[in-house]
Amino acid sequence: xxxxPLFPPASLDLHEAIEEDRRARAHxxxxxxGRFVCPASRxxxxxxxxxxxxxxxxxxxxxxxxxxxxxxxxxxxxxxxxLESLERLAEEVYVEIPLDDDLDVRLAEVxxxxxxxxxxxxxxxxxxxxxxxxxxxxxxxxxxxxGLHHAVRAxxxxxxxxxxxxxxxxxxxxxxxxxxxxFALGAEGFRWRGRTAHRDELxxxxxxxxxxxxxxxxxxxVEELEKLGILPx
Length: 233
Fold this sequence. Notes:
It is a single chain. The chain is an alpha/beta fold and 233 residues long. The protein has 6 helices and 11 strands. The protein has a single domain (2-180, 210-227), classed as TIM Barrel (Alpha-Beta Barrel). 28% of the residues lie in helices and 20% in strands. The strands form 2 sheets. The protein has an 8-stranded parallel β-sheet with strand order 1-11-7-6-5-4-3-2. Strands 8-9-10 form a 3-stranded antiparallel β-sheet.
């Protein structure tokens, strides 16, 4: 989980965000904690958070994300950015891809330039499923964000376990799964509807497809997994 407490709907001020992140790092489930996500416009204010930072370019003219002491490991860019200027910004550059009719063309260009993709999980599962299929076919690494507080799909909100199952089992039908009992995670691996992905398969999925999810809250996803009995492991 890439932790983004400065972003909506949490929208914490910087002091609150740093304090929440400190609590997340001290939590027993901190093994789930990814990078700290910070807008480029706030990076100059950010103290050392003790790990890598992913910078969201809310200001395409800004260069502050190049500040070496910030430990910037990844950069996330909005749709419509000039891809040619992005290739050397960070080791990992995630380009947000709108779920529109040009999705496949945009993903092909991202792949051609050696970048990664980012998707906002809004709307129905059809477009999101298409995005996953295209990324898998081209072996394009991506991250997902927006509304991924829930473990399992509910109403119009996607579930992060659904997304994980779709990625590791190559089955977009998992995006529509609404039964929490269909998922399990334990020493033997991650299970969905009688299928099991073992540790090596999960590691491969993180390296080759779904690298991370972004969430303004670290604790809400953790609490969801606790309610399902998946945590503590």
